[in-house]
Structure formats: C-alpha cells, structure tokens
Design a protein that fits this description.
The chain is α/β, with parallel strands linked by helices. The protein has one domain: Alkaline Phosphatase, subunit A (3-Layer(aba) Sandwich). It is 35% helix and 14% strand. It is built from 17 helices and 16 strands. Strands 5-4-6-1-8-11-2-12 form an eight-stranded mixed beta sheet, sandwiched between helices. A three-stranded mixed beta sheet has the order 10-3-13. Strands 14-15-16 form a three-stranded antiparallel beta sheet. Helix 7 packs parallel to helix 9. The chain is globular.
C-alpha cells in the first residue's frame, strides 16, 4: 500500500481541526463528504436513467434514496479539465487547464475545494485510478492524501480497498474524500481484459477504419466490453458505499457523477470516429449521470439543467463554508429538485497538435436540459429552432474554446507523458 502524503500545511491543518472542534460546540457538525467520479460513464448505461441491463444496481439503490439529475452536463468531455471544473467551480477556459496534463492556473489554486475544506478542518484524501489525474497532472494541492497508481491505471476494486484501509486508521472528522473510478474507460472490459489490452490500441479507439467494426457482431462485442467496465465501476461503488457508511455513518453526503460520457459506434459511419470522447460535443459525451444522497438532499428527480461545476457550491455549502461569489456564479443548489429552465455552457478541449477539420467544427455548446446547441468557428449550429439564450450561451463560449491551440503552459514531465501515451491521450 502506498499513500502520497502532502504535508505542506500539516501543522496548520491540525490547528484548523482544533478550531473547528471548538466551533462545533456552537452548531451542528458538518457532514463528511464522499465525491465519486466515474470516468467515461455514459448515463444511458445506468438503470436510474432507463437502462434495463442491470449494470448499476448500487447506483440505482443510491438514486432511490437520493436525488437524480436528469439533465446534468460536463464542462468539457475531457478528463483532466472536467475534474478541475468540479474542484474550482469554473469552466476550463477560466481555471486554465484545457487539456489532459495541464495544471490549474496559479491564480485559482486558493479556490480549490481541497484547499478550502482542509483549512476548515476537514481530513482530505483523494484516491484515483489513473495517472491522468495524478497530482502532477492536475496541480491539485489540497489533499493530504493523494493516492495514485504507480502505473498508468488500476481497477476500481483496488482503489476502494486502499480507501477503506485509510478510513480504518483516519480518526479525524469530518472527512472530504474523492474517489475516482476508471473502469469504463478504454481499453474496454473488466480488469483482466484491460490488463491484456494495455497500452491502448489507437486503431481500436478514436479515429478508426469503419470496416474494422463493419458487422453488428463486431460492434456488439465492443459495446459488451464497455458495459462490463460500467458494471465493474458500479460493483466498486457498492463496496465503497458500504464501507464508508460503516465508518462514517449514514449522515455521509454522497455525490456520484462522471467527468464525461463516451461515443460508441453512433458516428462510426459518418465520421470514422468511435469508442472515444473529447473531440466532439455530442450528447452521448457531454451528458453525465449525477446522483446525490445524504444530509440536506431532497429525494426525487430534478429536470433543470445542471453542470458538474455546480457541485463546487454544493460541497462548500454542505461544509458550512460561505462563499458569496461562488453562490452568485452558481445559482443551482443541486441538493433540491428544480424544473426551471437553465442554460449551461460546455467547451471544447485544447488540442496539442494539428487535428482533422471535422474536429474543429465542434467548438462550444449550450444546453438547457432539453436541447443541446453546438456552434463552430464557421457559425454552424445544431439543426432546428433554438431559444435565443441557448444559442447566445453557446456563442459566448466560442472565443474561449477556439483560442490559440498551442502548447500548454508547462511541458509534461516524462512520467506523465508516458502514462498519457499508454492511455491513448496524447495527440
């Protein structure tokens, strides 16, 4: 077992914990918070969103006791930037990381959730299953424990084992815990299939020859492998929820979402693009599952559009950390149902090298829960009539999304670059 322990402000954290304990005599104890992000999780594979294959019994059970968002969206269908939106409440063009491996901009580091909750006395820990969001690939610095795999990735079951081992010895309360599950991501399949299919074969993912999957049987095999990854993530989620609740109690606030979805074979014939994400802003890659359960959550379903960046305010509010600026930026409390029409923005990733013209025609988007509008540098938009504010939101993101596509602020270190290449990420 290997834990990366950040001790930059260990003494300060201890003092903060004492201060919090003293303050708790004047009010209720804030809840522990468990944030689970399932990488590359298509919402249409979850039972709570209508899938009948029985892939997600644990997520479905959580949804029955909590609140399900029917119109949740990522900020960018790319792992690193999307996760950093959750931890800062900002769009990628605002927090500065617009490709995998890019760190948060220095001016937003103090805004990070881990930093803020740690200063408020929370024990903070992150357990991730891929080098794509290891500390050197994100710049996140608020977690006292930041546990990442030695290699490029590890199964969700293995990371849950490490989480529960840490919880067994960590006695401070409350806890802010982030757990990342990579099981649905390429290479598709269960842990054994991933092991023999690694590094990722780019001929099978992303831009592929349509004839390679020209038969329904070939496409079905890929779909079945992807589904096994979803089932594996849900099994890990079940073990995690049972173990965490046994230690932290039923008052634990649980948030389960995804960084983005996945394109299967929907666009294979028209684009030659399949089994990947990030280069297009399609519904199957930008719509994500989102379920909350625990203190302050009103059970039911919510129809209004939500963004993963709204979780920033939810977590701060649950921890009792007031933030007027954040509240003004994010008008949704995702712990309560809301059917009001609301527009959210979605951005396109930064590319580190020249890409095909088909990619450049998808630059920024706006969504309101019932419609998704994508605009490009050439002014194209989705077919059909759209509301003016929805189109305006998409166009507002266009300058940010089409900014210079040069190299990131800092060069990737060799270990991170190698891991990204093995995972099929580096263009």
């Amino acid at each position: 077992m290997r834990w990366a322990i950040w001790t930059e402000a260990g003494g300060r954290s201890a003092l903060a914990a004492l201060a919090l304990a003293a303050a708790l005599g004047c009010g209720p104890t804030p809840p522990s918070i468990l944030l689970v992000t399932v990488d590359t999780f298509r919402r249409d594979h979850a039972g709570v969103y209508g899938n009948e294959a029985g892939l997600t019994p644990n997520l479905d059970a959580l949804a029955r006791e909590g609140l399900t968002h029917d119109a949740a969206y990522t900020t960018m269908p790319t792992t690193g930037p999307a996760h950093l939106s959750i931890f800062t409440g900002l769009l990628p063009s605002e927090h500065g990381a617009r490709s995998n491996g890019e760190n948060l901009a220095p001016q937003v580091l103090e805004r990070e959730l881990g930093v803020r909750l740690r200063r408020a006395g929370y024990a903070t820990a992150a357990f991730v299953t891929s080098q794509i969001i290891a500390p050197q690939a994100t710049g996140l610095r608020g977690f006292e424990i930041y546990d990442a795999p030695r290699g490029a990735l590890r199964p969700g079951a293995a990371v849950v084992e490490s989480v529960l081992a840490w919880l067994a010895v960590e006695k401070r309360r409350p806890v802010f815990l982030w757990v990342h599950l990579y099981d649905p991501h390429a290479p598709y399949g269960d842990a054994d299939e991933k092991r023999v299919s690694f590094p990722v074969d780019r001929r099978r993912y992303g831009w592929v020859e349509p004839g390679r999957y020209g038969t329904p049987e070939a496409r079905a095999r890929m779909a079945e492998r992807y589904a096994r990854g979803v089932a594996g993530a849900d099994a890990a989620l079940g073990e995690l929820l049972a173990g965490a609740r046994a230690v932290l109690g039923e008052s634990l606030l649980v948030i389960v979402t995804a960084d983005h979805g996945e394109s299967l074979a929907e666009h294979l014939g028209s684009r030659g693009f399949a089994y990947d994400h990030g280069k297009f802003l399609d519904p199957e890659t930008v719509r994500v599952p989102m379920v909350l359960a625990g203190p302050g959550v009103v059970p039911g379903r919510s129809e209004g559009a939500a963004s993963i960046r709204d979780l920033y305010t939810v977590i701060l509010d649950a921890a009792g950390i007031g933030d007027e600026r954040a509240a003004a930026e994010h008008r949704r409390d995702l712990r309560t149902p809301d059917a009001a029409r609301r527009v959210v923005r979605i951005e396109r990733r930064r590319f580190l090298s020249p890409v095909r013209d088909e990619v450049k025609t998808h630059a920024a988007a706006g969504a309101d829960g019932s419609a998704l509008v994508v605009v490009s540098e050439t002014g194209e938009q989705s077919a059909g009539p759209v509301e003016a504010d929805l189109l305006e939101a998409a166009r507002a993101g266009l300058p940010d999304a089409t900014a210079a596509e040069g190299a990131p602020r800092e060069s990737l270190d060799l270990e991170t670059r190698r891991a990204l290449e093995e995972l099929g990420y580096v263009e």
